[in-house]
Write a structure and sequence with these properties.
three-stranded antiparallel beta sheet; 10 helices; TIM Barrel; alpha/beta; 17% strand; 12 strands; 346 residues; globular; nine-stranded mixed beta sheet; binds iron/sulfur cluster; 28% helix
């Protein structure tokens, strides 16, 4: 087939008109969605399975995003409160976050960095040089976490250059990437990308995935390319009303992940990002879901349910609790069926 006859490659949906044309939004909602798009970008890559309601709910904008609640914040997890140099967050002593780019392949409607993502592109050379200088002068930092935006939107060449520069810092022991690319744009997990990640420092990759339908055959193949290269894979999931806030959906997701050699790592309680109230649910509901999963799922499929304390105070596990004092020096322990037992440890 000549290039002239070849059908055009599918492209990402980025405008309200794209959504209306694809039947993902009603023409009558144009006005509200245009207001949403002015505040929070739209981008839906072609690889995502749009026949899945759980996938659509994460990425198709809704007029509910115009409902900004008093408790919501521009910087819900306090990145800016711990930013010693541009592009770097240093919240915990032994690790630092490198905001390698603000670009994402998909703009998730619940994103906790939604006020920032898409604003600028990759970290400039000058800012990366400042980050390197800070890391060199901070030997207590052992781990650098590439996040964004989505760092795997950077070219393999750029990633390779950044990684090789970090490898020259003796105190660093491990690199971590947080990315949605293997599920939202699996075609970008190329041999060149995998090769770029292979250097002196071990790379751990944490994929962001929220619904079992995101593991398409193409995504599974991308995950296989990564595990075959010896890259350990973890996952993080945001607990989202209307997407995955029930034990059945999460059980299906976590089972699929361990079958792909991905260890479920964190289940995040949704952050107080602006215009995301329709995704949030009470902590007690999240705890009840986790309690149900404890009895159903193997330990290797259990993530830790965590809350990022607003204001930059860090991330903590939020239960459910299985242990409480009995008031007489012993303990009451709750089993996976929620029956309570007395336990004396001394
Ligand atoms: S890919 Fe990550 S950083 Fe980008 S919009 Fe989605 S949640 Fe936010």
């Amino acid at each position: 087939m000549t290039d002239a006859l070849r059908p055009p490659a599918p492209r990402a949906l980025t405008t309200v008109e794209d959504l209306v044309r694809k039947g993902l939004a009603k023409a009558a909602d144009r006005g509200a969605l245009t207001a949403v798009a002015a505040a929070f970008r739209i981008r839906i890559p072609p690889a995502l399975p749009l026949d899945s309601a759980g996938v659509r709910a994460q990425i198709v904008p809704s007029s509910a995003e115009l409902d900004i609640r008093p408790e919501e914040r521009i910087d819900p997890i306090g990145d800016d409160a711990h930013r010693p140099v541009p592009g770097l967050t240093h919240r915990y002593p032994d690790r630092a976050i490198l905001h390698a780019t603000q670009t994402c392949e998909v703009y998730c409607r619940f994103c906790f960095r939604r006020e920032k993502v898409g604003d600028t592109g990759a970290l400039s050379d000058a800012d990366f040089a400042s980050a390197l200088a800070y890391l060199r002068a901070s030997p207590q930092i052992r781990e650098v976490i590439f996040t964004g935006g989505d760092p795997l939107t950077l070219s393999p060449r750029r990633l390779s250059a950044m990684l090789r520069a970090l490898e020259a810092i003796p105190a660093l022991e491990v690199i971590r990437f947080h990315s949605r690319i293997p599920v939202v744009a699996p075609e970008k997990v190329t041999e060149a990308l995998v090769a770029a990640l292979d250097g002196r420092l071990p790379v751990w990759l944490v994929i962001h995935i929220n619904h079992p339908d995101e593991i398409t055959p193409e995504a599974a193949a991308a995950l296989r390319r990564l595990t075959r290269a010896g890259i350990p894979l973890l996952s993080q999931t945001v607990l989202l009303k209307g997407v995955n806030a029930d034990a059945d959906t999460l059980e299906a997701l976590f089972r699929k992940l361990i079958a792909q050699r991905v260890k479920p790592y964190y289940l995040h309680h949704p952050d107080l990002a602006k215009g995301t109230g329709h995704f949030r649910l009470p902590l007690a509901e999240g705890q009840a879901i986790m309690a149900a999963l404890r009895g159903r799922l193997s330990g290797i499929a259990q993530p830790t349910y965590v809350l990022d304390i607003p204001g930059g105070h860090g991330k903590v596990p939020v239960g459910p609790d299985y242990l409480e004092p009995d008031g007489q020096g012993g303990w009451i322990v709750t089993d996976p069926n929620r029956n309570r037992h007395s336990y004396k440890d001394l």
